[in-house]
Amino acid sequence: MKVGVVGGGQLGRMLGLAGLPLGFQFRFLEPSNDAPSAHLGEIIRAAYDDSDGLERFARDLSCATYEFENIPAATAQWLDERLTLAPTARALAIAQDRVVEKATFRELGIPVQATASIASELDIPLALERVALPAVLKTRRLGYDGKGQRTLLADSGDSIACVRNAWNELGRVPCLLESFVTFSAEVSQIAVRGRTRSHSRAIAFYPLTQNEHRGGILWKSQTPAPCDPTGELAQSAQEYVTRLMESIDYIGVIAVEFFVTPSGLVANELAPRVHNSGHWTIDGAVTSQFENHLRAVAGLPLGSTDPRGASVMINLVGRVPIAARVFDVAHTHLHLYGKGSRAGRKLGHVTLTAPTALDLAEPVAAVEQLAAWQT
Ligand code: AMP
Predict the structure, then answer these.
(1) Most confident residue range from 7-11, 144-148, 194-198
(2) Fewest CB within a 10 Å sphere: which of 110, 164, 259, 332?
(3) Which of these, 355, 354, 317, 320, lies nearest to 334 by C-alpha position?
(4) Of all atoms in ligand 1, which is nearest to the CA of residue 136?
């Protein structure tokens, strides 16, 4: 079966690497000419909103997915009407707009922090009545890896001026002001929902993953999550994600990121796709998130999401360590995306997998040294 993938970045590459041995073929829609997915299938080199490119991409495909959230909503809608797009254009539309995303969580009874939207300068005083500083101002659209956001401290003097300055810096585009959440940890729940009737659209959950960010970019993911020794957080994450997936008839892999607070989980955002915090599943789970996503998109039964032990994933950002030094460390698996080096760019990751978290303590410290990047 040929699967269309909108976007040819590292997520597309890992989908391809997971799918080729299973007999899947791929067609990527990708505007750049040095995409990480370039050797894994046919490439339609066109902008995401190029109608001719889209026609060529969709021709004779029965299903497609996307590996990149910032594709134009009209492109997703166009594909949704012609073939099985999974996740649907609706799921993408929710994730593309932070205001809609937070409203969706709220409607489903999934806890979120206080928020207020800001479309013009005139909205700032009212927004501050609902959301006091400290707060985070984020662009409604097109933010990723901590880009398009400013943290506003409580002691920054005139709070209206402070928000106005941040809003100006973000380009005076529609924004969302969110209360700053004091969290003890960040976690993500990765889940997959199939589309076959025989499997009654079953949902399978990967173990809860604990994430650490540096400068807004994911640095490290750990599973089992050290912050959830009793499994209580995983249980509420699974309940919330089930509610979300069922309410929009979601198909494929989803990642929902939460803050861990004294009163429980607070939802931060959702990604309607395979996710960086699930990269450990390639080496550390019975079926990777990439394979399960493809199975769901293609209407095939899902594979087991059971872990093979404990795993830690460390991102390689800006530069890649010498491979031999990584291989020198026990339990390591190196994944490179074939991208040129640039500060702040995700170039690869290392996953360490062993029977227990204790086995990983020393090797993880060694890889952290090799991978360290400046923020
Ligand atoms: P996001 O782009 O929303 O995933 O934000 C990137 C990172 O910024 C998150 O993983 C958090 O570490 C931090 N962050 C985002 N929103 C908030 C918030 N409301 N309160 C505290 N930290 C935040």
Answers:
(1) 7-11
(2) 164
(3) 320
(4) 19
134 Cβ below 6 A of ligand 1: no
Q: Please report the pLDDT score of residue 216 as a whole number.
A: 86
* DSSP helix/strand/coil, 103: helix
Q: Which uninterrupted H or E stretch holds 109?
A: none
CATH 3.30.470.20 in the chain is located at: 185-371
Which residues are CB-neighbours of 296 under 8 A, at least 6 positions away? 86, 192, 193, 194, 195, 251, 252, 253, 302
- The third-level CATH classification (topology) of the domain covering 2-85 is Rossmann fold (3.40.50)
The answer to whether the beta carbons of residues 119 and 177 sit under 8 Å apart is no
Residue 201 Cα to ligand 1 midpoint, Å, equals 31
Q: How far is the CA of 53 from the centre of ligand 1 (A)?
A: 35
Distance 160 CA to ligand 1 centre (A): 21
Say yes or no to pLDDT of 144 above 90: no
Tell whether ligand 1 has an atom less than 6 A from the beta carbon of residue 268.
yes
Question: Would you state the structure tokens that stand for residue 218, as one six-digit string?
Answer: 């994911």
Count of residues making up the chain:
375
CATH 3.30.1490.20 in the chain, residues? Answer: 114-179
Ligand 1 in reach of 143 Cβ (< 6 A): yes
Query: What span, in angstroms and rounded, lies between the C-alpha atoms of 50 and 46?
Result: 6
CATH class entry, domain 185-371: alpha beta
> How many CA atoms does the CB half-sphere of 368 hold within 13 Å?
13
Identity of residue 61: L
Closest ligand 1 atom to Cα of 218: 10
Token code pair at residue 270:
């959702």
Cα Rg, the chain, nearest whole Å:
20
Q: Ligand 1 pocket test: which of 268, 269, 270, 375 has the largest number of ligand atoms within 8 Å of its C-beta?
A: 268
pLDDT at 154 over 90: no
What number does the ligand 1 atom closest to the CA of 211 have?
10
Instruction: State whether the beta carbon of 139 lies less than 6 angstroms from ligand 1.
Output: no
Residue 156, pLDDT > 80, answer: no
- Find out whether the beta carbon of 228 lies less than 6 Å from any atom of ligand 1: no
Mean pLDDT over each residue of the chain, to the nearest integer: 94
Cβ neighbours, 10 Å, residue 93: 16
